[in-house]
Amino acid sequence: MGMTIAEKILAAHSGHESVVAGQLIECETDWVLCHEITTPAALRMLEERGMDRVFDPSRIVAVPDHSVPAMNIKAAKMYQKLKSWVQEKGIQHFYDVGRGGIAHVVLENTGLIKPGQTLVSGDSHTCNAGALGCFATGVGSTDLAGAIYAGKVWFKVPETMLIRVTGEMQPGVTPKDLVLEVIRRIGADGANYLAMEWVGDTIDRMDMEGRFTLTNMAIEAGGKTGIVAVDDTTRAYLAQRGVTPDQYTEYTSDPDANYKVVIDLDASAVEPTVAYPHIPSNGRVAGSDRIAVTHAYVGSCTNGRIGDLRDVARILKGRKVADGVQMIVVPATQAIWKQAAQEGLLEIFVEAGASVSYPSCGACLGMHSGVLGPDDVCISSSNRNFVGRMGDPTAQIYLASPATVAASAVAGYISDPREYNAESAGGGTEAAD
To answer: Residue 249's Cα: distance from chain center in Å?
Structure first.
């Protein structure tokens, strides 16, 4: 029996010629990604046990992003803990406030994480990096502590779900709509502990920004990771970041690889999709109901990239955000913020009546920079719409593409972006470094 991409990577990192789904392995990790929320807890575990060391300071990437700049004393202390550890241990890859942004988007642009490698982090959206043909997954603070100390993690080899997407996406339909449609079909637990492998001619034509959106939301279906095989698009993306093919290993799934389930999706039949409260699988066609919104949020590790901001600008240009709607746009990184400024996108946002914030996770997880109040209704380009996720538990969160968020902000209610001539298929072809 052949192996999937995920199985091949895990076999290579555990000293086995082959592995099978369900097998327990001790896996070497190439990279550990740390931020200021979950890392301090892992560090305390190590300190309390006299195990205060780092397996390799050149293979850890630290990016404060969740609650920065600090909005209160507690957040400031967490940031201080991460930064002092970075300085004490000589962590070589530190992207401080003002030099980084959202950890997952920062990392994808560094050229550090490469195809065929493994990555763990104390953050569930670490699966984002799987678009580069690597095995990337979130772990708890205890496993994070082990990875920091030993550079190894125990895994149960996941089964794989094959998602085959074919056909041309309609104008105004984006990769965010594709992944929301898949999650709608299979449910929020439909990929529990599975590797979600994306294939098909639609994926072949998709740029890297769109692929990152797909793999980023694997966790919203319960997935262990998302993954896309390396192709010319991946190679060109890496080359722009100074990474040459001799620096990484490409894996492809064998023709006789075993898949737990195969999902076929006709991209031409997918419409702009909105996930209604309070679960990402509660998807419906955008504009199905005239639901008034009080907040519109563009950002997060899912959809805060330059292509996303261009989609928003195309709709907002020459228009105004509706009265009574607070719109916040958060570029995912400093580099993206700068590029958006150079392209005039930030001016378009401000002229339309939107607020542009500094790069961070922002209001996505209800910590700061747009926290929702009682009974607020927010349409967001982020990844989760759980009760209380972005603030008050009575607030309602609707998930959608950046284009749908922009269209809804202008209309004052959830709207179909195709009514505003949204021409993009999502993601830019020229990403910020």
So the answer is: 23
The domain boundary residue, chosen from 235, 266, 297: 266
Q: Are residues 260 and 281 in the same domain?
A: no
Within this chain, do residues 223 and 161 fall inside the same structural domain, yes or no?
Answer: yes
Rounded distance between C-alpha atoms, residue 288 and residue 126, angstroms: 33
Is this prediction's pTM over 0.85? yes
Look up residue 85 and give its two tokens: 């550890």
CATH number reported for the structural domain that contains residue 351 in this entry: 3.30.499.10
pLDDT at 399: 98
Shared domain for 252 and 285, answered yes or no, is: no
pLDDT digits (tens, 9 = 90+) for 143-161: 999 999 999 999 999 999 9
Distance from C-alpha of 239 to C-alpha of 224, rounded to nearest angstrom:
28
The letter for the amino acid at 398 is: Y
- Of the candidates 38, 128, 165, which has an alpha carbon nearest to the alpha carbon of residue 383? 128
- Using CA atoms, how far apart are residues 378 and 89, in angstroms rounded to an integer? 41
Same domain for 122 and 258, yes or no, is yes
Q: Is 364 annotated as a binding residue?
A: yes
Residues 188 and 307 in one domain: no
Q: Which of 149, 116, 134 shows the shortest CA–CA distance to 34?
A: 149
Is residue 429 packed enough to be buried (19+ CB in 10 Å), middle (13-18) or exposed (0-12)?
Answer: exposed
Identify the residue with better confidence: 362 or 175. Answer: 175
SS3 of 12, please?
A: helix
Contact between 199 and 163 (Cβ < 8 Å): yes
- Does 425 score more than 60 pLDDT? no
Q: pLDDT category, 1, cuts 50, 70, 90?
A: confident
**Position of tokens 């702009």?**
272
Q: Is 378 annotated as a binding residue?
A: no
Number of structural domains the chain divides into: 2
- Domain hosting residue 16, numbered range: 5-266
361 known member of a binding site: yes
Span 315-330, average pLDDT:
97
